[in-house]
Design a protein that fits this description.
It is a single chain. The chain is an alpha/beta fold. It has 15 helices and 11 strands. The strands form 3 sheets. The protein has a 6-stranded mixed beta sheet. A 3-stranded mixed beta sheet has the order 5-7-6. Strands 8-11 form a two-stranded parallel sheet. Helix 3 links the parallel strand 1 (48-55) and strand 2 (81-88). It is globular and about 65 Å long. The two termini are 46 Å apart.
Amino acid sequence: MRKPNLSLKTLAIATLLSSSLFACGSPNQSTTSQPETTAAQTQSQEPVTITLVTYAVTRSAYEKIIPLFVEQWKTETGQTVTIEQSYGGSGSQTRAVIDGLEADIVALALGSDINQIEEAGLIDPGWETEAPRDSVVTSSVIAIVPRDPNLKITQWTDLAENDLEIITANPKTSGGARWNFLGLWGAITQTGGTEAEAREFVTKIYKNAPILPKNARESTDVFYQQGQGDILLNYENEVYLANLQGEKQPYTVLTDFNIAIDNPVTVVDKTVDERNTRDVSEAFVEFLFTPEAQAIFAEVGFRPTDPDVAAQVADQYPAIENLATIEDFGGWREAQPKFFGDGGIFDQIFQQ
């Protein structure tokens, strides 16, 4: 069972109250005597290490956020925390955790990956309710990057014309690739088309994919560094970051239809209870939803889920007229097996 979520402020108040009680002592106690240090107090001040397992494109944000949390936790609790990090494709990271990679916190590309870890018995049911905004810490949409700046993509069906080579990652290993797939599928089914028409459209796209990289970051490298493909489909935040880093490529976010790429975070209950790291792990998750952390996510291209921060950076992101969500596909518990499970629609298309 989960324990109550403790905020940094709550922990700090508890620490101050505890200190005050020991300072007061009993009426007969000498004012110069020192209170005896308990084992629990000693343990609480010992350095602690926790592990964050996340997907590849979040590195630029967490490398800035983690030092801020470490400093704040030290200030408010007196404890030194080290946060080890593991980055990779969201699907690959999910399997690694299930296979034994000890993660205190998982921040993955999609809810179905966390659901798989839950089904493996490592995360308690109801994780979606344990953090603000259904535990969705950031969001994004699909961006379209043409290699030729004169190539204009004005609608989704343009991607299937003129034998354009499309670079997108493998949905079996990449959460971003699953979002791409659903975005392409939904561009037909969510705008009046049938599933048969969607299958035909998506089949054309994958027929013209020369390679399926393992994750969104590798897709970026294949397109920019290796020079493969005419079109890159990727996270808006990944393309935004590439432009910040000097890889100046024009890109398009189609606003008539797109899909909300919602990225969840939660603690791994089995790990934090075995390692006695629940308090600091839950505090870190909570910190990710603060305006300070949300602003850093926005700096590197993620759409913040904090409404106030989102309003402050609204000019940075084009508004989407028809923004689909995973619920339009039945939620991840329905969409995952239908589209990406063994023998699902992606497997059927890939075999063709």
